[in-house]
């Protein structure tokens, strides 16, 4: 039997890994935006995601993985750690490599992979999810958060020695099939990733961070 969840006053000790494609090639499904606007929005999503993660109780560090030098500088200004992406064609391999760095630099921390397209993620909801997934990891299990559609994945966590993410097409089913426990189903902001303009409209309606608000020319409702 797994140990009971820790008291609410004791946050987990997590390192959140945020992989980010260079904004110039990211978010290609945001059809209808000009290339400069798409780049700005992709960068804003990543900045808001990382900033919210850094503000979340229980997060010891945010490790951003990117080959974009300008974005890396902006991430460092937010207090994030940055490492280059040595396997940029394979997201899962990128995450495994990053988690090896997490184990080296933050031994004992729970490694958590978080997608970079969550511009409205709220620290209070992310903190709740991290407590839940850290409990599973402490019991030797992996855990994942499905996206709003229920087919993709926005967050994955596992013990370092068993860290085996399955991001890609139908990733929720793939994570579930690999034995990962579904978590965070009530955490709407952690599940609301943005792939296309319909997703963007939904995120703007729910509220987004300051970078996305500026990139969307004031059409967004900033988070309070």
TrEMBL record:
Record-listed E.C. numbers: 2.7.7.68
Class of the enzyme per the UniProt entry, highest EC level: transferase
GO function terms (MF aspect): GTP binding; phospholactate guanylyltransferase activity
SUPFAM superfamilies: Nucleotide-diphospho-sugar transferases
Keyword annotations of the record: GTP-binding, Nucleotide-binding, Nucleotidyltransferase, Transferase
Domain of life: Bacteria
InterPro entries: CofC, Nucleotide-diphossugar_trans
Protein's recorded name: 2-phospho-L-lactate guanylyltransferase
């Amino acid at each position: 039997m797994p140990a009971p969840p820790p008291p609410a006053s004791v946050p987990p000790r997590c390192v959140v890994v945020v992989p980010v494609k260079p904004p110039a090639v990211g978010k290609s499904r945001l059809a209808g935006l000009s290339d400069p606007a798409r780049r700005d929005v992709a960068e804003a999503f990543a900045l808001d995601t990382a900033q919210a993660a850094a503000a979340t109780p229980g997060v010891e560090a945010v490790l951003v993985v990117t080959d974009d030098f300008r974005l890396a500088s902006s991430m460092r200004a937010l207090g994030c750690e940055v490492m280059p992406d040595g396997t940029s064609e394979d997201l899962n391999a990128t995450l495994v490599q990053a988690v090896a760095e997490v184990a080296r630099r933050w031994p004992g921390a729970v490694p958590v992979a978080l997608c970079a397209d969550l511009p409205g993620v709220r620290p209070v909801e992310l903190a709740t999810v991290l407590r839940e997934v850290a409990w599973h990891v402490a019991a030797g299990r992996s855990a994942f958060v499905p996206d709003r559609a229920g087919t993709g994945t926005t967050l994955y966590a596992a013990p370092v020695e068993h860290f085996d993410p399955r991001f890609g097409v139908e990733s929720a089913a793939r994570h579930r099939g690999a034995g990962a426990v579904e978590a965070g189903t009530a955490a709407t902001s952690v599940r609301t990733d943005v792939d296309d303009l319909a997703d963007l409209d939904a995120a703007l309606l729910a509220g987004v961070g300051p970078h996305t608000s500026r990139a969307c020319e004031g059409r967004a409702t900033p988070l309070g």
